[in-house]
# Entry
Amino acid sequence: MKLQAKELKLIQGGASISASLINAIVDGFEFIYELGKSFGSAIARAFRKTYC
# Structure
């Protein structure tokens, strides 16, 4: 199916941000935050030499 020039001008599109994309980004930030928190705690325990 070929589109005419008039029909091609009517095509609209673009990127939209969906809820699943926002959720994935938030989950990524939470993962990085928890990873940093765990890494920081490990470093602090290593310097204080307090291990459970």
The first helix runs from residue 5 to 9. Helices lie at 5-9, 19-48. The chain has two helices and no strands.
